[in-house]
Write a structure and sequence with these properties.
Blueprint: E1 7-10, E2 12-16, E3 43-48, E4 54-58, E5 63-67, E6 73-78, E7 83-88, E8 94-98, E9 102-106, E10 113-117, E11 119-120, E12 123-124, E13 128-133, E14 139-143, E15 154-159, E16 165-172, E17 175-180, E18 186-191, E19 196-201, E20 212-216, E21 223-229, E22 235-240, E23 244-248, E24 254-259, E25 266-272, E26 278-283, E27 288-293
Parallel strand pairs: 1-24
Antiparallel strand pairs: 2-27, 3-4, 4-5, 5-6, 7-8, 8-9, 9-10, 11-12, 13-14, 14-15, 15-16, 17-18, 18-19, 19-20, 21-22, 22-23, 23-24, 25-26, 26-27
Length: 308
């Protein structure tokens, strides 16, 4: 299938991880499969709080980093884990998808961090990757581990606001970023190793069926990673290993190619800034946060639904 060539948008560097926060004196076991001899950092999971601060994770060194609107960096917390994804609850607490420890909750006011989910039905998790809140407080998260085309057993779960855990699918080759459609009738999931984005219809009885490939991508050294949604139902896809973010319309047709001005490891994305029209991108190879101005604003995250 052929489409009109998408318009190119050049991303600029918003903030670069300072040298004093780059790790040079130790290594991390998370590096397995990454090919690098040593990692200075690996940024992921961008999310904004209501004050305009951008929180990101540094996976290999167990850090949650805070970037002010003026691009000043600080360490919000450092702990013995591998935080991979991050989303902010409307009460201000931060939920973390930690590859080693499961779903964690961090209180930025006190600095405390504690587990929310470490096991399901007495079984351990493969390695959770990313998460997103529904408007009712339900939390959706992916359990990726080392799954891929050689082992299509990755899982997508929903933690209901009342504590019930639902397994939506368990046959995904590397489930990664995820986002709800504006009407929350479907969940879109990046399937990294298959270079696809899947669409999971969400039925009233809490199940899903007729799961389909919404988008088929190609190229890159990894595949689709973080996802974000705009107010018109358009999907933003961070294509890790290709150095771009694709912006699609609600039907999956490409509109824009947001091009990295730094490395190829465009891992995750979040809308913020002026009228929520700026797209912020974690570029993990160089330890940068990129920014691109778009015409359609992003959908408000759960953390900003303060009047519900």
């Amino acid at each position: 299938m052929f489409y009109k060539v998408p318009k190119t948008v050049e991303a600029e560097v918003f903030a670069r991880l300072p040298d004093e926060l780059r790790i040079t004196d130790r290594d991390s076991g998370w590096r397995f499969g990454k090919g690098a001899s040593r990692l200075h950092s690996f940024l992921e999971g961008p999310s904004f709080d209501t004050h305009g601060n951008l929180y990101v994770v540094d996976i290999p060194y167990g850090r949650i980093l805070k970037v002010s609107p003026e691009a000043t960096w600080s360490v919000a917390v450092e702990y013995d884990g591998w935080p991979n994804g991050l989303k902010i609850h409307k009460d201000g607490s931060i939920f973390i998808a930690d590859h080693r420890l499961g779903i964690m909750r961090f209180d930025p006011e006190t600095g405390s961090i504690h587990p929310v989910i470490q096991k399901i039905k007495r079984e351990g998790l493969k390695g959770v990757n990313d998460l997103v809140f529904g408007s009712n407080g339900d939390l959706y998260f992916t359990d990726q581990g080392q799954t891929g085309l050689q082992d299509p057993s990755g899982r997508v779960y929903r933690l209901r606001d009342d504590g019930q855990i639902d397994l939506l699918v368990d046959n995904v080759p590397s489930p990664n970023g995820l986002v709800l459609t504006p009407d929350e009738s479907a969940l879109l999931v990046a399937v990294t190793r298959a270079n696809q984005v899947w669409r999971l219809p969400l039925h009233a009885d809490g199940t899903t069926s007729k799961v389909a490939a919404f988008v088929n991508l190609s190229g890159g050294l990894a595949g689709p990673d973080g996802l974000a949604m705009n107010t018109e139902g358009g999907l933003a896809i961070a294509h890790c290993g290709l150095g771009v973010v694709w912006i699609l319309d609600r039907l999956g047709q490409p509109l824009y190619r947001v091009q990295s001005s730094e490395g190829l490891s465009t891992t995750n994305i979040a809308y913020g800034g002026d009228r929520n029209r700026d797209l912020y991108i974690t570029e993990s190879e160089t330890g940068c946060i990129l920014r691109a101005r778009l015409t359609t604003p992003g959908q408000l995250m759960y953390s900003h639904h303060l009047d519900d």
